Amino acid sequence: MLDSIVQFLIKYKYIILFYTAIILFLIIKHKKIDVQAKIIFLYRMKWGLKWMDKYSRKLREWIILAGYIGVGAGFVGLVVISIILIKNLIDYFTTDLAVSGAAIVYPGMNVPGLGILTFWDWILAIFIIALVHEFSHGIVARAHNIEVKNTGIVLFGPILGAFVEPDEKKMRKEPDIKQYSVLAAGSFSNIILASVAILLLNFVFVPVLHNMVEPAGFTFNQHVGEEFPFAKAGIKPGEVITGINGVVTNDFQKFSEELVYLKPGEKVTINTNTDSYKIILAENPDNARKSFLGIKEIKNEIEVKTKFRSGFNQLLYLTVDWLTGFLRWLFLLSFGIGLFNLLPLPIVDGGRMAQVFLYKLKGASIGEKRYKQVSLFFLILLLFNLFLPLLGKLV
Question: In terms of residue numbers, what domain contains 248?
């Protein structure tokens, strides 16, 4: 028991130290911490307010223009994400191919093609996304001469983020278009951040990384079933597949190009980094004319070139490799959070946008009633999209 505790502490020492520092900060600053709903901790500051004032004055016209563009993008995003959730729920009950329309992205999550999301990538990405999101609200508000009272750090359960506090009373008195531009600014900036991340990834970091490595084959993480060829032959998950019938294949695409000419029932030799295996190809369950190996969660493997295995070049490779992986997660999280925040829910910007719209359309009294009905509908819709597929797997 003691050994298990020690191993746990060693394995997660940096995460434990990180949250220990957070807890100590909360204790030291407890008089200035605003606790809401028992799990939300707000620490208000004035940091960044002068920066917002400076650039909102200097770039006022451009910021206002971007804010108005964000309104259009925000309403399009609100409609798109709403339709996706509704359609996915309909598909869940009417087809066998439906997938989850929403998912919680958490540390340790394994996403095919991206790998495992580490705690540090997760916490850093969430903090950057929150900082960009909230400061965008603030700078657009200041461009419209709406006071921003505070900035601050928020701890929502284990999630560290940032926030700004515009003067809500003053903002509610502004014309609808100004309110929309402030409210949509956060999600619009997250989508811009995601776009910047994917452009940097595809046009800078991936090409640079490809010049530092060489393809070395592919691996898989799981057998589809014990009755299929790879499992029968004893080819284990994680073993690097390097060729088929003596033909060297440096990645899965080249392997597939060789496999396409082979039919079910044929005997083939699979070459790996440790051994060679004789297998008989099975029939693909979806198409009996195609061969099937019985593996999933396939990943191309790479080998670092010799010149990048030591010294400064090794440090350079490790930096580029980490940034390449981080930008993938930043894109996924920023885009997903940007769209999520456009849902017409009370807790996010899309809800406030819907509220302003319904107030204008129906008046304050009826508009508030319709807003609560719409919010409840989409809250239930979101919960169904999140948990029905999970319950389906358990049944």
Answer: 213-304
In a domain, 371, yes or no: yes
Which of 308, 318, 327, 311 has its CA nearest to residue 212? 308
What is the separation of C-alpha 363 from the centre of its chain, rounded to a whole number of angstroms?
37
Structural element, H or E, at residue 64: helix 60-94
Query: Using alpha carbons only, what angle is made at residue 281 by residues 298 and 293, rounded to the nearest 5 degrees?
Result: 15
Q: Which residues contact 346 (CB under 8 A, 6 or more apart)?
A: 375
Total of domains in the chain: 3
Distance CA 19, CA 30 (A): 16
* Same domain as 204, residue 333: yes
Per-block average pLDDT, block size 10, for the chain (395 residues)? 80 86 90 84 92 94 96 94 90 68 75 82 94 95 95 84 89 94 96 97 96 95 92 94 95 93 94 94 90 92 95 96 96 94 90 94 93 93 82 62
Q: Alpha-carbon distance 55 to 6, whole Å?
A: 50
Provide the residue type at 18 as one letter: F
Contact between 125 and 326 (Cβ < 8 Å): yes
